[in-house]
Amino acid sequence: MKEKITKTEAEWKAHLTPIQYQVLREKGTERAGTGEYADNHDDGIYHCAGCGEELFDAATKFESGTGWPSFFAPLPEAIATETDRKFFMKRTEVLCARCEGHLGHVFEDGPPPTGLRYCMNSAALRLEPKHQT
Contact at 8 Å (CB) between 60 and 69? Predict the structure, then answer.
């Protein structure tokens, strides 16, 4: 079980940019095609922008055509999910397992091997490039 990170709303606001706060803490969504990682192809590990938890390996990123970074699998124990019933539909919300920040949603229209599409907000992520040896 991951050690949870909790902060007051004031602490989150001081730590995050306005768009990061809107996405991670208020469950917002950035506009399609506007996030810095939507068309990024760099190798590395995507971390939670809120707490630094490792979430996705760039090797699992794929072009979904949605305008948001999409992955077919998270790192083990990196995420949590819950049912999102906003906007008169039922979706599966993806949260950081450590700080419970909103990352995006997961859908069942992804590529093999999982058939899943973790559709994430760039503002919720921070890419740490893999160092060449």
Answer: no
pLDDT at 18 over 60: yes
Strands ordered across the beta sheet of 61-62 = 61-62, 70-71, 117-120, 102-107, 91-96, 79-84
The C-alpha atoms of residue 23 and residue 81 are separated, in whole angstroms, by 16
| pTM higher than 0.90 | yes
- Single-letter code of the amino acid located at 86: K
Under a CB-based contact definition with an 8 Å cutoff, are residues 56 and 70 in contact?
no
SS (H, E, C) 99-110: CCCEEEEEECCC
Under a CB-based contact definition with an 8 Å cutoff, are residues 73 and 114 in contact? yes
Peptide bond into 76 cis (omega under 30): no
Bridging pattern class, strands 70-71 and 61-62: antiparallel
Catalytic, 96? Answer: no
Q: Which residue has the tokens 């989150």?
A: 12
Q: Per-residue pLDDT averaged across 104-124, rounded?
A: 96
Of residues 51, 96, 99, 119, which has the active-site annotation? Answer: 119
